[in-house]
Amino acid sequence: MSGRRIPLLPAVFRNEACEVSEPTPHPTARLAARAVTLGYGERSIVEDLTVDIPDDRFTVIIGPNACGKSTLLKSLARVLTPTSGQVVLDGRVIDSYPPREVARILGLLPQSSVAPEDIRVAELVARGRFPHQKLLRQWSPDDERAVVEALAATGTTELAGQRVDRLSGGQRQRVWIALVLAQQTPLVLLDEPTTFLDIAHQLEVLELCRSLNRDQGRTVVAVLHDLNQAARYGDHIVAMRDGRIVAQGPPAQVVTADVVEEVFGLRCRVVDDPESGTPLVIPRVGAAAIVRGK
User: Fold this and answer.
1) Could you give the count of Cα atoms lying within 13 Å of 265 in the half-sphere of its Cβ?
2) What is the bridge-based pairing of β-strands 187-191 and 92-93?
């Protein structure tokens, strides 16, 4: 493992200066948004949205492009500050925590990340241990073990000595997931974690997410585009459109023909998946043409 240490990359570790707010009553979930309005500059994407992220569950956020999915996830990770309302973590406004403390509780995989030039895979993944290090305790056997386990879980052990900028898009995505896993946080937020991956690796990542939740007890939140993958792997679905939540709950209650048409403008049948028994969305003949004509 290289001894070189460069400041950690994910945005959740930035924003060293933060305004301390008074604690709020402890919510029903560790992580929640309370009447948040979110946007970029003068443009609002989400207005007055309230949502609890269920503890110890695998929550999947779905919805059409530009509906506010990633914007909501960024606010939950303290990357984007609401223009009004609050994001609450363990009963306190999230901005009242020091960044390093947030990073010990919450790990984020953003949609796109850029690695420093010439950095190698093991060194990048090792940066997930930054929140756990202190002035007098830099690198420990626990840190080494966490990195080894994260590489193994994402199938990137053989890539450990390679330069990140020479990897394929799918390999890089798995390396970034390994960095988040090495962070070993009880809350894991993933923004489109299956991007750039072929179908086999998509399913591997989703199986890993489910294992993090069911076997390790971590609360996992992911933004996904594939409805059938969301229904198969998630146990709590949040469906969004135009910056608002249309439906939320177990897959069987949310992934219905009516909700799919309301959220995506897509006429479909929903049947039981013969493999998993979860909802399976089958677009009706001509449904794509109907959507284009709306």
Assistant:
1) 12
2) unpaired
* pLDDT above 90 for 290: no
Question: What is the DSSP-derived secondary structure letter of residue 134?
Answer: B
Contact present, 79 and 40 (Cβ < 8 Å): no
pLDDT, residue 132, reads 82
Query: Which structural domains are found in the chain, ordered by start?
Result: 11-253 (3.40.50.300)
pLDDT at residue 192, as a whole number:
94
Contact 192, 161 (CB under 8 A): no
pLDDT tens, residue by residue, 3-36? 444 333 343 333 333 333 333 443 469 999 999 9
Helices (H), the chain: 69-76, 99-105, 121-126, 141-153, 169-183, 199-214, 227-233, 251-254, 257-264, 287-292
| Inter-residue contact 91 to 1 (CB < 8 Å) | no
| b/e map 127-155, b = 16+ CB within 10 Å | bbbbbbeeeeeeeeeebeebbbebbebbb
> Does the pLDDT value for residue 179 go beyond 70?
yes
SS3 state of residue 291: helix
Distance in angstroms (rounded) separating the CA atoms of residues 168 and 50: 38
DSSP letters, 228-274, are HHHHHH-SEEEEEETTEEEEEESHHHHSSHHHHHHHH---EEEEE-T
pTM: 0.84
198 class by beta-carbon count within 10 Å (0-12 exposed, 13-18 middle, 19+ buried): exposed
* Neighbouring C-beta atoms of residue 35, cutoff 10 Å: 12
Name the more confident of 119 and 23: 119
